[in-house]
């Protein structure tokens, strides 16, 4: 299975055998531009070229294999438009982009109520519908979709316009109960159904390859998942109480639930039946690490974490990385970043440590919310680039007061969608049960844990709008 994982900053291609073994990998970077404050854009053709480069690099290191199918996972919520010739019109508007925040605030409360009742989400500039509204006003697009839809279009020789139900559920336009585009929501956001892709089950088949360099024609696209959903599948989180956190540019915390709830819920995937999950989205996680790295003049995030490890704690310093406002559970786009608690004794190491703490605190904010909804967390399964840091993972366990299992594979989203694809083809899989992990047990006593959590909550409250 050729698994393609298209993320915010890079694209990975992974050859995965039926037993879950990774046979070869390749990757390619993807640029992100910020032409104005609050804007985040990518080039659709650059994303497609990154897919081709990743595939080429993967196949160049592999022994000859027969690729029986393609599995695709992609960044969510980002949108792209293209014309009848298959040419992208306008930029890819990234999930981090908040140019539509002011417009969102003009929508009547009834729209937010409808969104919550039919999608489980809320009106926010992170999701696709406001971006699609903006894109359709500023570009002549015959077709629009999320990144998965764009890549399916290109992989199939510009023949198909399709998406999976999980990606569709992140648009604010897809009714996750009726499992169809919602006429009422389309009208609320002024997005015509005619420009949207057909929605299929996550393993419903998405056409076959045509004209893709390095690949034969006719390879079926077997399964498609949003990247955070694919990570949850790859982590084996399929039952209530199992929580996974993906540490990327932002972070996603998800836990399956037995049925839909009208707040903070998402459709993780649709196979023979839908699987719903509670989810919280953090806007700035890896982005906070990158920002602090640049602020301190360090060469890379690894150097930041090394510096943070030279002090036992942040010395009272708290960083709230609300560079584009706050995501879950606060959802305050008007909040602004702050670095507080400094004194004459504060060093660069304390600031670095405060950044590591901030990544972990934000995860805790969401798991606390999940716990308050009646789902009792047992342990956290962690994945994503930042999980290579022992300091971050131990800090996470200490602030949670629960064990953290960090995946030992960097390609968990690719493996998740590959596992769904192999299962669809009839293979018996249970890869998560055999995968090695690193276990971090909490070592912080309850009282200092509570103190640190209180200081964080106070700092968050200070940066929020009244």
TrEMBL record:
Keywords: ATP-binding, Kinase, Nucleotide-binding, Transferase
GO CC term (a single one): cytosol
InterPro entries found in the cross-reference section: ATPase_NBD, Carb_kinase_FGGY, Carb_kinase_FGGY_CS, FGGY_C, FGGY_N
UniProt entry tagged with the keyword ATP-binding: yes
Residue ranges annotated for the Carbohydrate kinase FGGY N-terminal domain, each copy included: 1-234
ATP-binding among keywords: yes
GO biological process: glycerol metabolic process
PROSITE patterns membership: FGGY_KINASES_1 (PS00933)
Stretches assigned to the Carbohydrate kinase FGGY C-terminal domain: 245-421
Listed GO MF terms: ATP binding; glycerol kinase activity
Entry's family note: Belongs to the FGGY kinase family.
UniProt name for this protein: ATP:glycerol 3-phosphotransferase
């Amino acid at each position: 299975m050729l698994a393609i994982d298209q993320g915010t900053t890079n694209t990975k291609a992974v050859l995965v055998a039926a037993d879950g073994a990774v046979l070869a990998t390749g990757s390619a970077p993807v640029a992100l531009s910020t032409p104005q404050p609050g804007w985040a854009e990518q080039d659709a053709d650059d994303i497609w070229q990154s897919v081709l480069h990743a595939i080429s690099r993967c196949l160049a290191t592999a022994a000859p294999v027969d690729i029986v199918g393609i599995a695709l996972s992609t960044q969510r919520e980002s949108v792209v438009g293209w014309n009848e010739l298959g040419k992208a019109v306008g930029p890819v508007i990234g999930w981090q982009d908040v140019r539509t925040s002011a417009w969102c605030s003009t929508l009547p409360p009834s729209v937010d109520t409808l969104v919550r009742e039919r999608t489980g989400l809320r009106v926010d500039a992170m999701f696709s519908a406001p971006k699609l509204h903006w894109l359709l006003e500023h570009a002549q697009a015959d077709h629009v979709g999320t990144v998965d839809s764009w890549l399916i279009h290109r992989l199939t020789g510009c023949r198909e316009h399709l998406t999976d139900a999980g990606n569709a559920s992140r648009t604010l336009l897809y009714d996750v109960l009726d499992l169809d585009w919602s006429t009422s929501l389309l009208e609320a956001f002024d997005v015509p159904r005619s420009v949207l892709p057909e929605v299929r089950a996550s393993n419903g088949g998405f056409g076959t390859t045509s004209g893709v360099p390095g690949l034969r024609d006719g390879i079926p696209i077997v399964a498609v998942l949003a990247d955070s959903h694919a990570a949850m599948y790859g982590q084996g989180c399929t039952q209530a109480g199992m929580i996974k956190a993906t540490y990327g540019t932002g972070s996603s915390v998800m836990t399956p639930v037995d049925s839909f709830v009208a707040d903070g819920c998402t459709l993780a995937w649709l196979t023979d039946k839908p699987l719903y999950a509670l989810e919280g989205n953090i806007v700035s996680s890896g982005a906070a690490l990158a920002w602090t790295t640049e602020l301190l003049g360090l060469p890379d995030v690894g150097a930041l974490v090394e510096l943070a490890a030279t002090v036992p704690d942040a010395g009272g310093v708290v960083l709230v990385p609300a560079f584009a406002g706050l995501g879950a559970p606060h959802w305050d786009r008007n909040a602004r970043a702050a670095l507080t608690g400094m004194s004459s004794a504060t060093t660069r190491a304390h600031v670095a440590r405060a950044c590591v703490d901030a990544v972990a605190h934000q995860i805790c904010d969401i798991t606390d919310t999940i716990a308050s909804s009646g789902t009792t967390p047992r342990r956290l399964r962690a994945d994503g680039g930042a999980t290579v840091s022992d300091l971050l993972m131990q800090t996470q366990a200490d602030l949670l007061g629960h064990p953290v299992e960090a995946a030992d594979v960097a390609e968990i989203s690719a493996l998740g969608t590959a596992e769904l694809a192999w299962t669809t083809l009839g293979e018996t899989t249970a890869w998560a049960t055999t995968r090695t992990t690193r276990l971090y047990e909490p070592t912080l006593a309850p009282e200092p844990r509570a103190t640190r959590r209180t200081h964080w909550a106070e700092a968050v409250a200070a940066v929020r709008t009244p």
